Amino acid sequence: MAEEFSGKIESKGLNPGLIVLLVIGGLLVTFLVGNFILYTYAQKKLPQRKKKPVSKKKMKKEKLKQGVQVPGE
User: Fold this and answer.
1) Which CA distances in Å does 53 have to 17, 47, 49?
2) For the CA atoms of 30, 31, 35, 41, what is the dihedral angle to 10 degrees?
3) How far is CA 24 from CA 1, 13, 20, 36, 55, in A?
4) Does residue 44 sit in helix, strand or coil?
5) What is the value of pTM for the model shown?
6) What's the rounded Cα separation, in Å, for the pair 43 and 37?
7) Got the DSSP string for 14-35?
8) Per-residue confidence in pLDDT tens, the chain, 73 aa
9) What CA–CA distance (Å, rounded) separates 36 from 24?
10) What is the pLDDT of residue 5?
11) Distances from the Cα of 60 to the Cαs of 30, 55, 57, 64, 68, in angstroms?
């Protein structure tokens, strides 16, 4: 009986679904690793972004807020 079954079992190779999963997983890992490498390169090589200058109106508002912070005293 074991001889009957051993002849019918054939190795078909890898499952097609597994191949698709491996390809998508490989592309995703490649994408993430590439992004990480670009990010670290940009952190080291590119200059820091300059902050926008604060307008005079905003400066006045901030000073007023700080001055009126403690109204009870």
Assistant:
1) 55, 18, 12
2) 40
3) 42, 19, 6, 18, 49
4) helix
5) 0.48
6) 10
7) S-HHHHHHHHHHHHHHHHHHHH
8) 555 555 555 566 779 899 999 999 999 999 999 999 999 999 888 877 777 787 888 888 888 888 765 555 4
9) 18
10) 57
11) 50, 9, 5, 6, 12
13 torsion bin: left (phi>0), alpha (psi -120 to 50), beta (else): left
The residue behind tokens 């926008």 is 52
Q: Give the pair of three-digit tokens for residue 1.
A: 């009986």
